[in-house]
Amino acid sequence: METNVVGGGLIDVRAISRIAYAFMGSKALFAALDFSLFDYLSGQPKSLESLAEQTGIAPNRLATLMAVLRSLGLVAADAEGRFANAPATEKYLVRGSDTFFGDYYRLQIDKLVYRNFLRLTDGLRGHPPESIRDMLADPEQAAIFTDAQHQGSMGPAVLLSRSVDLSGRRSLLDVAGGSGVFSIVLCRRYPQLNATIIDFPSVIEVAERYVGEAGLRDRIALIGADALETQWPTNQDVVLMSYLLSAVGADDIPRLLDMALRALAPGGVLAVHDFMLESNRAGPREAAQFFLAYIAQRADCDSSTAAEIEQGARRAGFERVRSADLIPGLTSIVSAEKPPL
Q1: What residue spans define the domains of the chain?
Q2: pLDDT (tens digit, 9 = 90+) per residue, 61-77?
Q3: Residue 114: CA count within 13 A, CB half-sphere
Q4: Is 17 exposed, middle or buried (0-12, 13-18, 19+ CB in 10 A)?
Q5: What is the pTM of this model?
Q6: N or C: which end of the chain has fewer CB within 10 A?
Q7: 155 burial class (0-12, 13-18, 19+ CB within 10 angstroms)?
Protein backbone atom coordinates (compact mmCIF):
# COMPACT_ATOMS: atom_id res chain seq x y z
CA MET A 1 0.00 0.00 0.00
CA GLU A 2 1.35 3.42 -0.98
CA THR A 3 2.25 5.70 1.90
CA ASN A 4 3.24 9.33 2.27
CA VAL A 5 5.52 8.55 5.20
CA VAL A 6 9.00 7.04 5.18
CA GLY A 7 11.28 7.02 8.20
CA GLY A 8 8.75 9.17 10.06
CA GLY A 9 8.54 11.98 7.49
CA LEU A 10 6.38 13.06 4.55
CA ILE A 11 7.64 12.38 1.03
CA ASP A 12 4.84 13.87 -1.09
CA VAL A 13 4.46 17.61 -1.66
CA ARG A 14 0.70 17.11 -1.95
CA ALA A 15 0.67 15.95 1.66
CA ILE A 16 2.44 19.18 2.64
CA SER A 17 -0.11 21.15 0.63
CA ARG A 18 -2.98 19.52 2.49
CA ILE A 19 -1.46 20.80 5.72
CA ALA A 20 -0.92 24.28 4.28
CA TYR A 21 -4.45 24.58 2.92
CA ALA A 22 -6.28 22.97 5.86
CA PHE A 23 -7.31 26.32 7.37
CA MET A 24 -9.38 27.11 4.27
CA GLY A 25 -11.75 24.25 4.98
CA SER A 26 -11.92 25.24 8.65
CA LYS A 27 -12.90 28.80 7.80
CA ALA A 28 -15.57 27.57 5.38
CA LEU A 29 -17.06 25.50 8.21
CA PHE A 30 -16.93 28.44 10.62
CA ALA A 31 -18.55 30.78 8.07
CA ALA A 32 -21.36 28.30 7.45
CA LEU A 33 -21.97 28.15 11.20
CA ASP A 34 -21.95 31.94 11.49
CA PHE A 35 -24.74 32.11 8.90
CA SER A 36 -26.70 29.21 10.50
CA LEU A 37 -26.51 27.53 7.10
CA PHE A 38 -26.77 23.99 8.45
CA ASP A 39 -29.84 24.96 10.48
CA TYR A 40 -31.59 26.12 7.31
CA LEU A 41 -30.69 22.85 5.57
CA SER A 42 -32.06 20.71 8.37
CA GLY A 43 -35.17 18.71 7.64
CA GLN A 44 -35.45 18.98 3.87
CA PRO A 45 -33.23 19.76 0.85
CA LYS A 46 -33.01 23.40 -0.24
CA SER A 47 -32.26 25.00 -3.58
CA LEU A 48 -29.44 27.51 -3.87
CA GLU A 49 -31.95 30.32 -4.35
CA SER A 50 -33.96 29.36 -1.27
CA LEU A 51 -30.80 29.04 0.81
CA ALA A 52 -29.52 32.40 -0.44
CA GLU A 53 -32.75 34.07 0.63
CA GLN A 54 -32.59 32.53 4.10
CA THR A 55 -28.90 33.20 4.77
CA GLY A 56 -28.68 36.59 3.08
CA ILE A 57 -25.65 35.47 1.06
CA ALA A 58 -25.80 36.39 -2.63
CA PRO A 59 -26.23 33.32 -4.87
CA ASN A 60 -22.89 33.77 -6.67
CA ARG A 61 -20.98 33.84 -3.37
CA LEU A 62 -23.08 31.13 -1.77
CA ALA A 63 -22.50 28.80 -4.72
CA THR A 64 -18.77 28.96 -4.07
CA LEU A 65 -19.20 28.29 -0.36
CA MET A 66 -21.47 25.33 -1.12
CA ALA A 67 -18.87 23.89 -3.48
CA VAL A 68 -16.33 23.92 -0.65
CA LEU A 69 -18.78 22.41 1.85
CA ARG A 70 -19.62 19.65 -0.63
CA SER A 71 -15.93 18.93 -1.22
CA LEU A 72 -15.47 18.59 2.53
CA GLY A 73 -18.39 16.19 2.83
CA LEU A 74 -20.38 18.50 5.09
CA VAL A 75 -23.28 18.80 2.65
CA ALA A 76 -24.52 16.83 -0.35
CA ALA A 77 -26.60 17.68 -3.42
CA ASP A 78 -29.29 15.69 -5.21
CA ALA A 79 -29.86 15.34 -8.95
CA GLU A 80 -31.88 18.56 -8.98
CA GLY A 81 -29.07 20.52 -7.33
CA ARG A 82 -30.80 20.85 -3.96
CA PHE A 83 -28.56 20.77 -0.93
CA ALA A 84 -28.88 18.71 2.26
CA ASN A 85 -26.79 18.16 5.36
CA ALA A 86 -24.53 15.12 5.60
CA PRO A 87 -25.53 12.76 8.45
CA ALA A 88 -22.74 13.95 10.77
CA THR A 89 -23.58 17.58 9.98
CA GLU A 90 -27.24 16.99 10.83
CA LYS A 91 -26.28 15.33 14.12
CA TYR A 92 -23.58 17.69 15.38
CA LEU A 93 -23.93 21.03 13.58
CA VAL A 94 -27.67 21.75 13.70
CA ARG A 95 -28.76 23.93 16.60
CA GLY A 96 -31.34 22.21 18.75
CA SER A 97 -29.82 18.77 18.32
CA ASP A 98 -29.00 17.01 21.60
CA THR A 99 -25.48 16.53 20.23
CA PHE A 100 -25.03 20.06 18.81
CA PHE A 101 -21.36 21.01 18.83
CA GLY A 102 -21.42 23.92 16.43
CA ASP A 103 -20.95 26.75 18.92
CA TYR A 104 -17.78 25.14 20.22
CA TYR A 105 -16.31 25.25 16.71
CA ARG A 106 -17.77 28.67 15.93
CA LEU A 107 -16.81 30.42 19.15
CA GLN A 108 -13.96 28.54 20.78
CA ILE A 109 -12.04 27.34 17.75
CA ASP A 110 -12.73 30.15 15.28
CA LYS A 111 -13.05 33.21 17.48
CA LEU A 112 -10.37 32.29 20.05
CA VAL A 113 -8.06 29.42 19.07
CA TYR A 114 -7.80 30.45 15.41
CA ARG A 115 -7.02 34.01 16.52
CA ASN A 116 -4.25 32.68 18.77
CA PHE A 117 -2.61 30.89 15.87
CA LEU A 118 -2.45 34.15 13.91
CA ARG A 119 -0.08 35.32 16.67
CA LEU A 120 1.93 32.12 16.90
CA THR A 121 5.15 33.51 15.39
CA ASP A 122 5.31 36.24 18.04
CA GLY A 123 4.63 33.66 20.72
CA LEU A 124 7.42 31.40 19.51
CA ARG A 125 9.76 34.38 19.69
CA GLY A 126 8.77 34.75 23.33
CA HIS A 127 6.62 37.84 22.86
CA PRO A 128 2.99 36.73 23.07
CA PRO A 129 0.75 39.74 22.37
CA GLU A 130 -2.04 38.75 24.78
CA SER A 131 -2.14 36.52 27.83
CA ILE A 132 -5.01 34.32 28.92
CA ARG A 133 -5.48 36.65 31.89
CA ASP A 134 -5.70 39.64 29.54
CA MET A 135 -8.36 37.88 27.48
CA LEU A 136 -10.41 36.83 30.51
CA ALA A 137 -10.22 40.34 31.94
CA ASP A 138 -12.55 41.39 29.10
CA PRO A 139 -16.07 40.31 30.17
CA GLU A 140 -17.20 39.83 26.57
CA GLN A 141 -14.21 37.63 25.68
CA ALA A 142 -14.57 35.75 28.95
CA ALA A 143 -18.22 35.02 28.16
CA ILE A 144 -17.40 33.78 24.64
CA PHE A 145 -14.62 31.56 25.99
CA THR A 146 -16.68 30.15 28.86
CA ASP A 147 -19.85 29.54 26.85
CA ALA A 148 -17.89 27.77 24.11
CA GLN A 149 -15.89 25.75 26.60
CA HIS A 150 -19.10 24.66 28.33
CA GLN A 151 -20.34 23.06 25.15
CA GLY A 152 -16.94 21.58 24.28
CA SER A 153 -16.46 20.14 27.77
CA MET A 154 -19.85 18.49 28.21
CA GLY A 155 -18.74 15.26 26.50
CA PRO A 156 -15.43 15.03 28.40
CA ALA A 157 -17.25 15.74 31.66
CA VAL A 158 -19.61 12.82 31.09
CA LEU A 159 -16.68 10.56 30.19
CA LEU A 160 -14.78 11.63 33.30
CA SER A 161 -17.82 10.99 35.50
CA ARG A 162 -17.80 7.41 34.24
CA SER A 163 -14.02 6.99 34.56
CA VAL A 164 -13.44 8.20 38.12
CA ASP A 165 -15.45 6.55 40.90
CA LEU A 166 -16.50 9.21 43.42
CA SER A 167 -18.86 6.99 45.39
CA GLY A 168 -18.79 8.06 49.01
CA ARG A 169 -16.96 11.32 48.24
CA ARG A 170 -18.76 14.40 49.52
CA SER A 171 -16.65 17.43 48.59
CA LEU A 172 -15.14 18.38 45.25
CA LEU A 173 -12.85 21.33 44.55
CA ASP A 174 -12.99 22.18 40.84
CA VAL A 175 -9.92 24.36 40.20
CA ALA A 176 -10.28 26.67 37.19
CA GLY A 177 -13.66 25.05 36.72
CA GLY A 178 -14.86 27.44 34.01
CA SER A 179 -18.58 27.24 33.37
CA GLY A 180 -18.93 24.55 36.02
CA VAL A 181 -19.73 21.83 33.52
CA PHE A 182 -17.60 19.17 35.25
CA SER A 183 -19.02 20.01 38.67
CA ILE A 184 -22.57 19.99 37.28
CA VAL A 185 -22.16 16.59 35.62
CA LEU A 186 -20.43 15.07 38.66
CA CYS A 187 -23.01 16.43 41.13
CA ARG A 188 -25.80 15.03 39.01
CA ARG A 189 -24.14 11.62 38.91
CA TYR A 190 -23.30 11.60 42.63
CA PRO A 191 -26.19 13.04 44.69
CA GLN A 192 -24.10 13.12 47.88
CA LEU A 193 -21.43 15.34 46.29
CA ASN A 194 -21.04 19.09 46.81
CA ALA A 195 -18.62 21.17 44.75
CA THR A 196 -16.69 24.42 44.94
CA ILE A 197 -15.46 26.09 41.76
CA ILE A 198 -12.53 28.53 41.66
CA ASP A 199 -11.99 30.64 38.55
CA PHE A 200 -11.47 34.24 37.46
CA PRO A 201 -14.35 36.54 38.49
CA SER A 202 -15.38 37.16 34.86
CA VAL A 203 -15.66 33.40 34.31
CA ILE A 204 -17.51 32.82 37.57
CA GLU A 205 -20.20 35.27 36.39
CA VAL A 206 -20.92 32.87 33.52
CA ALA A 207 -20.64 29.80 35.75
CA GLU A 208 -23.28 31.25 38.05
CA ARG A 209 -25.76 31.19 35.17
CA TYR A 210 -25.04 27.56 34.27
CA VAL A 211 -25.15 26.40 37.89
CA GLY A 212 -28.47 28.18 38.35
CA GLU A 213 -29.93 26.67 35.18
CA ALA A 214 -28.87 23.24 36.44
CA GLY A 215 -30.71 23.84 39.71
CA LEU A 216 -27.54 23.24 41.74
CA ARG A 217 -26.97 26.56 43.52
CA ASP A 218 -27.39 24.80 46.87
CA ARG A 219 -24.66 22.25 46.05
CA ILE A 220 -22.09 24.20 44.01
CA ALA A 221 -20.27 27.14 45.58
CA LEU A 222 -18.41 29.70 43.47
CA ILE A 223 -15.17 31.55 44.24
CA GLY A 224 -14.08 34.32 41.88
CA ALA A 225 -10.28 34.45 42.09
CA ASP A 226 -7.03 33.49 40.37
CA ALA A 227 -6.44 29.92 41.56
CA LEU A 228 -2.71 30.58 41.86
CA GLU A 229 -3.23 33.59 44.12
CA THR A 230 -6.02 32.57 46.48
CA GLN A 231 -6.44 30.22 49.44
CA TRP A 232 -8.12 26.95 48.49
CA PRO A 233 -10.72 25.30 50.70
CA THR A 234 -9.18 22.41 52.63
CA ASN A 235 -10.24 18.93 53.72
CA GLN A 236 -11.59 18.18 50.25
CA ASP A 237 -12.38 14.63 49.12
CA VAL A 238 -11.58 15.39 45.48
CA VAL A 239 -9.55 18.03 43.65
CA LEU A 240 -10.20 18.29 39.92
CA MET A 241 -8.00 20.23 37.51
CA SER A 242 -9.33 20.03 33.96
CA TYR A 243 -7.59 21.87 31.10
CA LEU A 244 -5.57 23.82 33.69
CA LEU A 245 -2.01 22.51 33.60
CA SER A 246 -1.76 23.05 29.84
CA ALA A 247 -2.72 26.71 30.29
CA VAL A 248 -0.24 27.71 32.99
CA GLY A 249 3.51 28.23 33.09
CA ALA A 250 5.81 25.25 33.48
CA ASP A 251 6.85 26.40 36.97
CA ASP A 252 3.20 26.64 38.02
CA ILE A 253 2.56 22.91 37.53
CA PRO A 254 4.48 21.61 40.58
CA ARG A 255 3.04 24.47 42.61
CA LEU A 256 -0.53 23.53 41.65
CA LEU A 257 0.12 19.88 42.49
CA ASP A 258 1.43 20.93 45.92
CA MET A 259 -1.64 23.12 46.46
CA ALA A 260 -3.89 20.20 45.51
CA LEU A 261 -2.17 17.93 48.03
CA ARG A 262 -2.65 20.49 50.81
CA ALA A 263 -6.32 21.00 49.91
CA LEU A 264 -7.15 17.30 50.05
CA ALA A 265 -8.17 15.35 53.11
CA PRO A 266 -6.07 12.22 53.82
CA GLY A 267 -7.07 9.59 51.28
CA GLY A 268 -8.48 12.25 48.96
CA VAL A 269 -8.33 11.93 45.20
CA LEU A 270 -6.65 14.19 42.64
CA ALA A 271 -7.93 14.07 39.05
CA VAL A 272 -5.97 15.90 36.34
CA HIS A 273 -7.66 15.99 32.94
CA ASP A 274 -5.85 17.67 30.08
CA PHE A 275 -4.18 17.47 26.72
CA MET A 276 -1.20 15.14 27.08
CA LEU A 277 1.42 14.01 24.62
CA GLU A 278 2.48 10.46 23.95
CA SER A 279 5.61 9.31 25.73
CA ASN A 280 7.71 9.75 22.55
CA ARG A 281 6.26 13.27 22.09
CA ALA A 282 5.35 12.50 18.46
CA GLY A 283 1.67 13.24 19.01
CA PRO A 284 -1.25 12.91 19.24
CA ARG A 285 -1.57 15.62 16.61
CA GLU A 286 -4.63 17.35 18.07
CA ALA A 287 -3.20 17.42 21.59
CA ALA A 288 0.11 18.82 20.33
CA GLN A 289 -1.72 21.51 18.36
CA PHE A 290 -3.67 22.66 21.41
CA PHE A 291 -0.43 22.95 23.37
CA LEU A 292 0.92 25.07 20.50
CA ALA A 293 -2.06 27.42 20.74
CA TYR A 294 -1.07 28.38 24.27
CA ILE A 295 2.36 29.56 23.10
CA ALA A 296 0.63 32.55 21.50
CA GLN A 297 -0.57 33.56 24.97
CA ARG A 298 2.35 32.94 27.29
CA ALA A 299 6.10 32.45 26.90
CA ASP A 300 6.54 30.12 29.89
CA CYS A 301 4.06 27.40 28.92
CA ASP A 302 5.13 23.83 28.25
CA SER A 303 3.74 20.60 26.87
CA SER A 304 3.51 17.47 29.00
CA THR A 305 3.17 13.73 28.69
CA ALA A 306 1.01 11.72 31.06
CA ALA A 307 4.18 10.16 32.47
CA GLU A 308 5.56 13.62 33.29
CA ILE A 309 2.37 14.61 35.14
CA GLU A 310 2.47 11.28 36.99
CA GLN A 311 6.07 11.94 38.02
CA GLY A 312 5.15 15.43 39.21
CA ALA A 313 2.31 14.03 41.31
CA ARG A 314 4.62 11.52 42.96
CA ARG A 315 7.16 14.25 43.72
CA ALA A 316 4.38 16.29 45.35
CA GLY A 317 3.65 13.37 47.68
CA PHE A 318 0.77 11.56 45.98
CA GLU A 319 0.57 7.79 45.79
CA ARG A 320 -1.34 5.26 43.67
CA VAL A 321 -0.69 7.47 40.64
CA ARG A 322 -1.99 6.21 37.32
CA SER A 323 -3.16 7.50 33.95
CA ALA A 324 -5.49 6.56 31.12
CA ASP A 325 -6.86 8.07 27.94
CA LEU A 326 -10.10 9.96 28.33
CA ILE A 327 -10.64 11.19 24.76
CA PRO A 328 -8.34 8.97 22.69
CA GLY A 329 -5.94 11.03 20.62
CA LEU A 330 -6.71 14.22 22.54
CA THR A 331 -6.88 14.12 26.35
CA SER A 332 -5.82 11.86 29.21
CA ILE A 333 -6.60 11.71 32.90
CA VAL A 334 -4.04 11.27 35.68
CA SER A 335 -5.48 10.23 39.02
CA ALA A 336 -3.67 10.01 42.35
CA GLU A 337 -4.41 9.79 46.05
CA LYS A 338 -3.17 11.67 49.08
CA PRO A 339 -1.70 9.18 51.56
CA PRO A 340 -4.01 8.34 54.49
CA LEU A 341 -3.01 9.30 58.00
Answers
A1: 5-94, 110-337
A2: 999 999 999 999 999 99
A3: 16
A4: exposed
A5: 0.89
A6: N
A7: middle
